[in-house]
UniProtKB/TrEMBL annotation, chain A:
<keyword id="KW-0479">Metal-binding</keyword>
<dbReference type="InterPro" id="IPR012675">
    <property type="entry name" value="Beta-grasp_dom_sf"/>
</dbReference>
<keyword id="KW-0560">Oxidoreductase</keyword>
<dbReference type="InterPro" id="IPR004489">
    <property type="entry name" value="Succ_DH/fum_Rdtase_Fe-S"/>
</dbReference>
<dbReference type="GO" id="GO:0008177">
    <property type="term" value="F:succinate dehydrogenase (quinone) activity"/>
</dbReference>
<dbReference type="GO" id="GO:0051538">
    <property type="term" value="F:3 iron, 4 sulfur cluster binding"/>
</dbReference>
<comment type="similarity">
    <text>Belongs to the succinate dehydrogenase/fumarate reductase iron-sulfur protein family.</text>
</comment>
<dbReference type="Pfam" id="PF13085">
    <property type="entry name" value="Fer2_3"/>
</dbReference>
<dbReference type="InterPro" id="IPR017900">
    <property type="entry name" value="4Fe4S_Fe_S_CS"/>
</dbReference>
Automatic annotation (TrEMBL), chain B:
<feature type="transmembrane region" description="Helical">
    <location>
        <begin position="121"/>
        <end position="141"/>
    </location>
</feature>
<protein>
    <submittedName>
        <fullName>Succinate dehydrogenase cytochrome b558 subunit</fullName>
    </submittedName>
</protein>
<dbReference type="InterPro" id="IPR016002">
    <property type="entry name" value="Succ_DH_cyt_b558_Firmicute"/>
</dbReference>
<feature type="transmembrane region" description="Helical">
    <location>
        <begin position="80"/>
        <end position="100"/>
    </location>
</feature>
<dbReference type="GO" id="GO:0016020">
    <property type="term" value="C:membrane"/>
</dbReference>
<feature type="transmembrane region" description="Helical">
    <location>
        <begin position="31"/>
        <end position="50"/>
    </location>
</feature>
<feature type="region of interest" description="Disordered">
    <location>
        <begin position="260"/>
        <end position="290"/>
    </location>
</feature>
<keyword id="KW-0472">Membrane</keyword>
<keyword id="KW-1133">Transmembrane helix</keyword>
Length: 284, 290
């Protein structure tokens, strides 16, 4: 239906796809050109499937299939997040007809630039999940005993929190963030897997936590039961690499595919931390 | 997009224990945010407003300068504690912050992102400009050997508080200086106005997108007004540094100085009084006044 907006005469018979490939972690990237036969209603995932089927570059050389990640194919899992024409988004909801309208020369695909590349367009987003652990983005409900009903939830509170709960941890917000720098470590030969994981977590814990985790901390701080652990989350948000690293460029909210009010969460976290800072200093 | 852009990515990965700056990052960043408004931003507003009083008359400006200098020997202490040290703190932490950022307006050309980059660019311009400006007018440190052997030969310490408008006006005659001051003042004004807006988010004053929009409008108006004050002050000062108006300014400054000497309010101070080229040119006019 969207493709029909373009007159048939304007549709190309084929288009070029440039992919930034990388064979293994830490190796240099290289560009590869692919020529794809045009079909209406393609998305970037179907383009990648065509590239895999061809396994031949635009110059006619045989090549390995481009590796990529995907799962739900309806923009709710975040697995296929990559840079399409330089901007971060999900490949599944990136429609070729639209992309060619904006840039008839072709499509450029790159892996996300803020996460370690595993291969081609596949990146390791462990740091996103580690950030959720840092702010304890959950509600602790332990024990087997029945502790009765929890605190009442207001309609207003629910309406504030619902949009925040839509986060799929795709990483678009931090990819577009000028304050979020890539952290990539490599396993040493004398290091066990567990030691390496621990060293990686230490590095992640000092680096900027990012908008997604800040917003999740607010989601659970605003929850009537989650509020009971609010100070622990605020402590994490004021640790090195916390909220203070935010530079208010507000790219996060502009690129979020789920339209989550991330900058509202950031400002709300700022207000909670202002209060927490004074309470911590004068109440101790 | 070249592949090489990855090389710019910065990581703080290290096995050594975190540095002082990292351990106290939250407090330092909040102090940085606060110091931008109080005292640095507040001082800048007062400074530009006082300077703009030259548009009223050189006498009005001179009166304000005398008021500031009535602090006497306390003035350098106030200067260092409330102005120079906070500016240095704000500037040095600012450089650290700038080095930790990876501006990306190319791929994400949104208004707020452009302001993010501009905030960093104007901050760096402001740092350099303030260093030049304080050297040019004040000389950085008021120590005789330093002033005579280094500052004056390089064209610094041109402002003489007891000959306020005329000495500042004379120092602003070259086009290069006016250009430096124009760029510097506008960079400082943008940096303050936009900084107040981001500060409101940092401390959690304006939260919703609507409130942030309203706040950014108010900050824009504030910035525009302050820019008018600043540019007005610059060109008002410059106008009093040449021709008839220079002679008139010198006359009124002389009268005020003589009066203060006579009443015993002031002791003669050649350093604050200045001299040089101006004195010669208006010696004749002084004769005619007498």
């Amino acid at each position: 239906m969207i493709a029909d907006a373009t007159p048939a005469s304007k549709k190309p018979s084929s288009f070029e796809v440039r992919v930034l490939r990388q064979d293994a972690p830490g190796e240099p990237g290289y560009w590869e050109r692919h020529q794809i036969t045009y079909e209406p209603n393609l998305n970037v995932i179907s383009v990648l499937q065509k590239i895999a089927a061809l396994s031949t570059t635009a110059d006619g050389k045989s090549t390995t299939p481009v590796a990529w990640d995907c799962n739900c194919l309806e923009e709710v899992c975040g697995a296929c997040t990559m840079l399409v024409n330089g901007r971060t988004r999900q490949a599944c909801s990136a429609l070729v007809d639209r992309l060619l309208e904006d840039n008839p020369a072709g499509i450029e695909l790159q892996p996300m630039s803020k996460f370690p590349v595993l291969r081609d367009l596949v990146v390791d987003r462990t740091r996103m999940y580690r950030a959720l652990e840092r702010v304890k983005a959950w509600i602790p409900v332990d024990g087997y005993g029945d502790r009765g009903a929890g605190p009442k939830e207001s309609q207003e509170g629910q309406e504030v929190r619902y949009p925040l709960s839509e986060c799929m941890t795709c990483g678009c917000c931090v990819e577009a963030c000028p304050q979020f720098a890539k952290v990539e470590l490599f396993q040493r030969s004398d290091e066990s897997d567990a030691e390496f994981a621990e060293r990686k977590n230490r590095a992640y814990d000092q680096a900027f936590i990012g908008a997604a985790a800040i917003s999740q901390a607010i989601l659970f701080n605003e929850h009537p039961t989650g509020h009971m652990n609010a100070d622990e989350r605020l402590e994490a948000l004021s640790a090195p690499g916390g909220l203070q690293v935010c530079g208010n460029a507000q790219n996060c909210v502009a690129v979020c595919p789920k339209n989550i009010p991330l900058t509202t969460s950031i400002a709300r976290a700022g207000r909670q931390l202002t209060g927490y800072m004074f309470r911590k200093f004068f109440d101790r | 997009m070249p592949v090489g852009f990855r090389a710019k990515d910065m990581t703080r990965v290290q096995d050594s224990p975190p540095s002082f700056l990292v351990r106290h990052e939250f407090l330092i960043r909040r102090l940085h945010s606060l110091s931008g408004l109080v005292p640095v931003g507040a001082f800048m507003c007062v400074h530009l407003l006082v300077n703009a009083s030259v548009l009223e008359s050189p006498a009005a400006f001179q009166k304000n300068v005398y008021q500031i200098h009535s602090l006497g020997s306390l003035l350098p202490v106030v200067e260092w504690v409330f102005i120079f040290i906070p500016i240095l703190f704000h500037a040095i932490i600012g450089v650290v912050i700038v080095m930790g950022g990876i501006p990306n307006t190319g791929n994400y050309p949104y208004a707020a992102n452009r302001r993010y980059t501009l905030q960093r660019v104007t901050g760096m311009i402001a740092f350099v400009f303030i260093a030049i400006h304080v050297f040019h007018m004040h000389g950085w440190i008021h120590q005789d050997t330093w002033l005579e052997k280094v500052v004056r030969p390089l064209g610094g310490a041109e402002f003489h508080p007891y000959s306020a408008a005329s000495s500042a006006g004379l120092a602003l005659q070259s086009y290069v200086m006016v250009a430096i001051y124009l760029i510097g003042v506008l960079a400082c004004v943008f940096h303050l106005a936009n900084g107040i807006w981001t500060m409101g988010i940092t401390w959690g004053v304006w939260i919703s997108p609507k409130a942030q929009k309203r706040a950014s409008n108010v900050c824009a108006i504030f910035g525009l007004l302050l820019a008018i004050v600043g540019v007005g002050a610059l060109f008002g000062m410059r106008a009093d540094g040449a021709g008839e108006r220079l002679i008139e300014a010198r006359q009124v400054e002389d009268k005020m100085y003589e009066h203060k000497l006579e009443s015993g309010e002031l002791k003669p101070n050649e350093h604050k009084r200045g001299g040089g080229e101006v004195t010669k040119s208006e010696e004749t006019s002084q004769v005619s006044v007498e």
